[in-house]
Amino acid sequence: MLYEKMLTLLLKQTLCSSVLGVFFLNGCTHIPTLDERKSTVLNLSFDKAAIQAELQTSSFTLFSIQKLSNSCENKDMKVYIEGDGLSWITKRRISDDPTPLYPVGLSLMLSDESSCKVYIARPCQYVKQSICENKYWTSHRFNTKIIQSFDEALDNLKKNHKNSTFTLVGYSGGAAVAALTAVNREDISKLITVAGNLDTNEWTELHHIMPLEGSLNPADFTRVLQNIPQYHLIGENDTIVPKEIFFSYFNKFENKNNVKYFTYDATHSCCWGEIYKEFLKGAKTDESTKNR
Length: 292
What we know:
Radius of gyration: 18 Å
CATH topology: Rossmann fold
Strand order of the largest sheet: 3-4-6-5-7-8-9-10
Shape: globular
Structural class: alpha/beta
CATH class: Alpha Beta
Largest sheet: 8 strands, mixed
Number of strands: 10
Oligomer: single chain
Helix content: 25-40%
């Protein structure tokens, strides 16, 4: 719970009421600047062993926080992918900067005691580029160009750190990015999603919003994804990406043997850091039992 409390204290100085930018902000007197939002991330990732780095790809520059050691060589690397961030300011006004106000994806990474882990923000979060048109955090948020940028980022990490496999962990819209990135790779050992938007067509219909016409939908790739071990964490009280979205994705699998899901007393944003920490303890225990 430590990271959630720290984030809450930081955000109370500038925010009133929000829904994490998934839809819009309501009545806020001040939206933190990019520098203020970046300062929040840097204050949270206080571990001296963690470094800030920008991952260059052929299209986007991706902001990352990395904690990597020699233990990565020939082992599994966990990659945490952030949610959609601040996509909208109001129902009709698109944000000019999708950098999240509350980086839940980072809180997941910080809850993980692994020494081989990387947090990657979504395109145009924490980074200013000429390519950053607002379609990349609205209609094209899961576009092929975005998925390619994550694919290239993983290739570069693997080249530099010589890990053998990746566990992809995606929060909210980051879950869609994680799943779509896994489709064309053979080195994904596990896919973990938290409050994941895994059927974007069902999601837009549920909320009566415009279809994401420039995006891919993870639910269209279940035939490939069924071969990857998956763990999905779902909030019982999540009204942004309710459990119906996961089950729409889940029901499209012909073979469900590799797909496990868990429900928690949680909303879309609270309080996943602590929940995820406990999930990892259970997963570690299960893995140890399996290897005996």
